[in-house]
Design a protein that fits this description.
The protein has two domains: 105 residues, Serine Threonine Protein Phosphatase 5, Tetratricopeptide repeat (Alpha Horseshoe), CATH 1.25.40; 123 residues. The protein has a three-stranded antiparallel sheet, with no helix packed on it. It has ten helices and three strands; from the N terminus they run αααααααβαααββ. By secondary structure, it is mainly alpha-helical. Helix content is 65%, strand content 6%.
Amino acid sequence: MNAIPLLLVLALAAPPELKRARDRFEFGAWADAAGTLRQLLSSGRSLTEEEAVDAYRMLGIAEYHLGDLPQARSAFLNLLSNDPDYTLDAFLVPPPIVEMFDAVKRENEDALAPLREQKRALRDQARLAEEARRKLLAEAPPTKIVRVQERLYLFNWMPLGAGQFQNGDRAKGTAIAAGQITAGAVNLAAIIAHAQLADNMPRCTSAEPDCSRPPYSDSDRELLATMDAVKYVSAGVFWALYAYGVWDAHRNYVPIVETEITPGQPGATLKLGLGIRF
């Protein structure tokens, strides 16, 4: 069993005491590491099998370096009671310690064999249970997936059919947007044309014919009035469409849309459910 992946996994969720012991162990502070590990293991704190194996591995190695071989042997026995198939990595652990560990394993093979069989049986049971669970789920109806979409209330007040597009009424939204864009363009063109005509028209006096209301002639004033009418009518159309769009968007507004999707069914159609939050 390789110790490097095991250490990487344990480092993510190990108890603080185990992490402190590992830091001291890696720096070769054997006495500090052994003391921290002994305190952790005697505290009765619940450890996972991987955490217990790592703790007894470090304790056994630390005790060996401290010269307490009986305590090192005891730590290795506890390690093997958790994982009878465990092996020390010869690239990371000095050969004398590996030899001692292997000797402890050989000497206690009669006691480790039943543990090994028991763990193998448990693994087989877990595998069979997982296969049965997967088979049961495979035969069960497909899981229903619900996609929740929250709609923005602010869109109800926006022009150009934004509220209609959000509510899913694209045809109405397109019509309102096209009408408002057209009315706005006509209004802007009328405003610009009115200003240019007023600046460039010749001036006249009341003494001249067709100039009852100077400084513009009567015919020019009629043209300006026509431009004014186009300007006001187009503005009225724009704001009327805006008001209708706001009213219609509020009338059909639903804050939350839930789309229910049943995967795995050919040609499955979407069912639309509506919900409102208060």
